[in-house]
């Protein structure tokens, strides 16, 4: 049973104000997600929890918030041992959580969302006036301007996140958990969020900031705990270098820069004209989009997730229907081609969700490496597969792409995320391509694998392939792009050079044109390195 704040042990709690996790262990079958983790959060500090996707950060925080129960270990809040059987216990103990995927009801107003589960009122009646007043008070107190009567579905993601923060504060949270909070924000919204977190810290609240982004950690952390493979790999201060933090994250030295020569763009190999794609509910995901990508260049599409990038990638490979427009690869119109015919026309594809679209988990490494060409020579002779050739190809690709596997017969589902992604990329780059479309190519991949994947993408560019990369990671865009196209609500709002400032890119990601963004940021055309539109 959870111990309550008025337990006898709480009498002297202020003498031991902190939130402590001691020896937290959590197993899922044979998988140890957390192993003996110790973590302390003090009032008036921002403690960053840094680690790769899958390192165990979110599992640990879900335990702290009562969504999961630990197999071993203890949670102590202000000197009082606690057992959380659900989020209500954590909330009552002064813990609030801002989830990566917002826990809001779209059709409800801000005020209605604020009181879900804690409806104030008498005789069973909800007092919405009181709820609106609470929203207004908290908005003014923390500088988080929100209309209490606005419907969630009509708010941009940055404002929705403000509502999540206000919900936690409305419950009088003294310790706040921010779980990957910058994933869906523009650079300007990220700066605003960091201002809010600093304000909370200065007021005496403790903040846990979960992220895998080194730049953000060094910008805001008072202390840093690095998690690797479910265990604490080290504790650091904000002055520690990105290279040192990255080494703690992956266990070995990695390069954080991409070495590439000035590109020499050739002829247009991918041309999109008036491409429009409509979702099943009738909403326009891609809106009359024009774009060209030349051989020997990497064009990155930047933007906040949910602005049509995923639908564009799927439309290019033929798994999302077009309403209108033309797609051309090396001068051939392919928009009426099947996916198989587009692959045969020289289109390579690295999907956003590799587990769903990129491989067959129950197939072996060798089988997955020929999924798009097993029916053709040299892997097939007539209707018969040539097993020896398929296995020889697998051994070559495993060596070339440094795929860490015990055997080419291992099921791909058993590999790490980085090695799964290497299998997908190895398959696509093992044939002559006109165009490579890579959507979120390093999502869920450790820093070491990112370094390798980036090198291979640049090498493909240097072979003369037109490379189109869709990424929400601005560091990745800056590292790889020869040109950057910014997408907002299904349209390209402008194309700029790779060294364009984050401020300009952020304004464009919010819908500003190139000219408007440059004027607001007070930069010159030369600073954007080759504005196209």
Automatic annotation (TrEMBL):
It is found in: Cell membrane. One of its GO terms (molecular function) is ATP binding. The keyword Cell membrane applies. Pfam families: ABC_tran. Its main location: membrane. Residues 19-254, 270-514 form the ABC transporter domain. One of its GO terms (cellular component) is plasma membrane. PROSITE patterns: ABC_TRANSPORTER_1, ABC_TRANSPORTER_2. The keyword Membrane applies. InterPro entries: AAA+_ATPase (IPR003593), ABC_carbohydrate_import_ATPase (IPR050107), ABC_transporter-like_ATP-bd (IPR003439), ABC_transporter-like_CS (IPR017871), P-loop_NTPase (IPR027417). Keywords: ATP-binding, Cell membrane, Membrane, Nucleotide-binding, Repeat, Translocase, Transport. It is a peripheral membrane protein. This is ABC transporter.
């Amino acid at each position: 049973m959870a111990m309550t704040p008025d337990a006898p042990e709480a009498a002297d709690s202020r003498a031991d104000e902190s939130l402590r996790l001691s020896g937290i262990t959590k197993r899922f079958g044979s998988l140890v997600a957390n192993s003996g983790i110790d973590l302390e959060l003090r009032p008036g500090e921002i403690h960053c929890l840094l680690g790769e996707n899958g390192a165990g950060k979110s599992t640990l925080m879900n335990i702290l918030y009562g969504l999961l129960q630990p197999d071993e270990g203890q949670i102590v809040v202000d000197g009082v041992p606690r057992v959380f059987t659900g989020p209500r216990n954590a909330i009552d103990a002064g813990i609030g959580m801002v989830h990566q995927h917002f826990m809001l009801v779209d059709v409800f107003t801000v005020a209605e969302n604020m009181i879900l589960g804690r409806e104030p009122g008498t005789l069973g009646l909800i007092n919405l006036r009181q709820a609106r007043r609470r929203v207004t008070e908290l908005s003014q107190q923390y500088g988080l301007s929100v209309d209490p009567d606005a419907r969630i579905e009509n708010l941009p993601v940055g404002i929705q996140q403000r509502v999540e923060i206000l919900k936690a504060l409305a419950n009088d949270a003294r310790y706040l958990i921010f779980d990957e909070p910058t994933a869906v924000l523009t650079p300007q919204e990220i700066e605003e969020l960091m201002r809010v977190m600093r304000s909370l810290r200065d007021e005496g609240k403790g903040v846990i900031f979960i992220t895998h982004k080194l730049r953000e950690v060094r910008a805001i952390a008072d202390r840093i705990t690095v998690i690797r493979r479910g265990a604490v790999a080290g504790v650091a201060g904000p002055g520690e270098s990105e290279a040192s933090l990255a080494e703690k994250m992956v266990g070995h030295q990695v390069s954080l820069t991409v070495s590439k020569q000035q590109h020499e763009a050739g002829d247009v190999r991918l041309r999109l004209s008036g491409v429009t794609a409509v979702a099943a509910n009738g909403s326009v995901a891609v809106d009359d989009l024009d774009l060209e990508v030349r051989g020997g260049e990497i064009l990155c599409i930047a933007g906040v997730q949910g602005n049509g990038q995923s639908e564009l990638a799927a439309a290019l490979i033929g798994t999302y229907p077009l309403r209108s427009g033309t797609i051309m690869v090396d001068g051939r119109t392919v928009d009426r081609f099947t996916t198989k015919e587009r692959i045969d026309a020289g289109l390579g594809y690295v999907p956003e969700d590799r587990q769903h679209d990129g491989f067959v988990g129950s197939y072996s490494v060798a089988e997955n490496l020929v999924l798009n060409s097993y029916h053709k020579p040299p892997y097939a002779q007539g209707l018969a597969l040539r097993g020896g050739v398929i296995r020889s190809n697998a051994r070559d690709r495993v060596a070339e792409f440094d795929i860490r596997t015990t055997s080419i017969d291992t099921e791909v589902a058993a590999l790490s995320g980085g090695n799964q992604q290497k299998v997908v990329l190895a398959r696509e780059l093992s044939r002559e391509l006109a165009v490579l479309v890579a959507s979120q190519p390093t999502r869920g991949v450790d820093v070491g694998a990112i370094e390798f994947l980036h090198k291979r993408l640049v090498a493909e560019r240097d072979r003369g392939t037109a490379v189109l990369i869709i990424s929400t990671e601005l560091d990745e865009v800056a590292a790889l792009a020869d040109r950057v196209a910014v997408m907002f609500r299904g349209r390209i709002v402008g194309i700029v050079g790779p060294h364009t400032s984050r401020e300009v890119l952020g304004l464009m990601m919010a819908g500003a044109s190139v000219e408007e963004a440059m004027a607001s940021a007070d930069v010159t055309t030369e600073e954007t390195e080759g504005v196209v539109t």
